[in-house]
Amino acid sequence: MIAVMQRVSQARVLVDGQTIGEIGAGLLLLLCAERGDSEAESDKLLAKVLKLRIFNDAAGKMNHSVQDMDGQGLIGGLLVVSQFTLAADATAGNRPSFTAAAAPAEGRRLYDYFVMQARQKHLLVQTGQFGADMQVHLVNNGPVTIPLRMAPAACTN
Prior knowledge:
The chain is α/β, with parallel strands linked by helices. It has helices at 39-51, 104-121, and strands spanning 2-15, 18-23, 26-32, 55-56, 62-64, 77-82, 125-127, 134-149. The protein has one domain (2-155): 3-Layer(bba) Sandwich (D-tyrosyl-trna(Tyr) Deacylase, Chain: A), CATH 3.50.80. Strands 1, 2, 3, 6, 7 and 8 form a six-stranded mixed beta sheet that branches. Strand 6, helix 2 and strand 7 (125-127) form a beta-alpha-beta unit. The longest helix is centred in the C-terminal third of the chain and has 18 residues, at 104-121.
């Protein structure tokens, strides 16, 4: 699985002009399932997202995770948006290839699985709409943007 994680002050996603998911401070996660991915990659990615220390402590050091925000009296939101274009291969020609992306049905299954698991492990999870034409608005805090990839070989612990 591939993800681009952005630390945000606020983020929202719209479909047909209507806000369908919105958070204050937290993480915007753009998520893509690739061919061959399974629940194991999803679980490993979610664990990394929830534990990655990218929020500042009192000294201004990145020492807190999105889950640690609860201890600071805040609820760090997680806005999960499907984005198959993260699997783009633009090495040849001028049109990107998306053959590395999971087939739509499998991509939806893994996206839904990720969101279900996230909701079991985190207090505030909002989503986009799989397969929809979405408009994503965000205020990137920092800016902090971190790409993550969980390949099947990385999940053999």
